[in-house]
Amino acid sequence: MSYIMVDIESDGPIPGDYSMVCFGAVLVQPGLEQTFYGRLKPISEKWIPEALAVSGFSRETCLTFDEPTQVMRSFADWLKQVSDGKPMFVSDNNGFDWQFINWYFHHFLGRNPFGFSSTNLGSLYKGMVKDVFQNFKHLRKTRHTHDPVDDAKGNAEALLTMKSELGLKIRL
């Protein structure tokens, strides 16, 4: 099994009504050299300016991005290439990130290579330290910039630190 850290940016709170603008993924292994970045053309006329602003893109720029089917196919191909067995989806906020990736995979490819499971990095950390009020974000090395590859890398760094310094039993 391979762990894939994912981060997405969108122009609204839910897939279908709103669009995933871009996403980044990194294979969680020392060096964090295997990354994926996708920018997707909007699928809806609806968008919330404040939500889109987080990504740093304008609506006009988003309209020039790649077709979602092409991006999701490329992502599925990348997952197959870098994964040893079935990939495991991990993110800082999998309630948000997972819903978009899952919806887009099913809507545009008819299947999700991750299957039906995901892992929330924050919840994993809270369980490790036995305190629901704790936060893992101090374990990041890469600054959180809302560039989804940067953010996925920072979260992957935190997971690697949880393994190397906090004793998380995980095969990477």
UniProtKB/TrEMBL annotation:
<dbReference type="GO" id="GO:0003676">
    <property type="term" value="F:nucleic acid binding"/>
</dbReference>
<keyword id="KW-0269">Exonuclease</keyword>
<dbReference type="InterPro" id="IPR036397">
    <property type="entry name" value="RNaseH_sf"/>
</dbReference>
<keyword id="KW-0540">Nuclease</keyword>
<dbReference type="InterPro" id="IPR012337">
    <property type="entry name" value="RNaseH-like_sf"/>
</dbReference>
<keyword id="KW-0378">Hydrolase</keyword>
<dbReference type="GO" id="GO:0004527">
    <property type="term" value="F:exonuclease activity"/>
</dbReference>
<protein>
    <submittedName>
        <fullName>Exonuclease</fullName>
    </submittedName>
</protein>
